[in-house]
Structures are given as C-alpha cells and as structure tokens.
Amino acid sequence: MSTQWIQVYSAANNLEAHSLKGMLESVCIAVRLTGESLGSAVGELPANAVEVGLWVEPECIAQVGRLLQDYEQAEYRDWICTQCNETNEGQFEICWQCGCEKP
Ligand SMILES: [Zn+2]
C-alpha cells in the first residue's frame, strides 16, 4: 500500500458503514472498510457485533470531513412534514401534527 489511508469514521455496524461508503463513492471518493470481514459469513454474527472503520486517502480528508459532518447533523436537523408543512424537531420520526412519517 503506497498511500497512507486515514480512518475518518467508526461506524456502529455494517449497515451504517455501507451507507456511508455508498455516499462517499457517489462523489468519487475511494473508501476502504475495516472490521466488517469478521461478519462476512452471513448469519454467523449479528450485523452490529463489530465496529466498522471507514478509511479514505489523505487528499480527500477535508471533503470527507464536511460530508460526514452533514451526515451526522442530518439526523438532528429540523424537518418539514410533506403532508401538513409542520416543522418537526430532528429527533422525532413522526410528525407531531398529523402523524405522518419523516420523509
Ligand atoms: Zn404532518
């Protein structure tokens, strides 16, 4: 390995790791995952049994940092209900006004 990769994130499980990997790859950033191989045999381990490291090349680090920041904030950002246009706080999964799900 000629390039020294840097770990930028530790995902709680394979699912999160792969969704982040997909997000970064969609903007042409090469991503490596570590830790997931332990759970590679399907059904052998629960998906959340191991933390998965996300690694990128050093030249991408600034861009990746911004993307990850957006990712983490997105979960807590206020959202507007598509049904009734009510503003809801980010931690709520359902509109308090009409019960519609977070888009
Ligand atoms: Zn609503």
UniProtKB/TrEMBL annotation:
The keyword Zinc-finger applies. InterPro entries: DUF2007, Znf_RanBP2. Coiled coil: none annotated. It holds the Pfam family DUF2007. GO terms for molecular function: zinc ion binding. It comes from the Bacteria. Keywords: Metal-binding, Zinc, Zinc-finger. PROSITE patterns: ZF_RANBP2_1, ZF_RANBP2_2. Residues 75-103 form the RanBP2-type domain. This is RanBP2-type domain-containing protein. It comes from Photobacterium profundum (strain SS9).
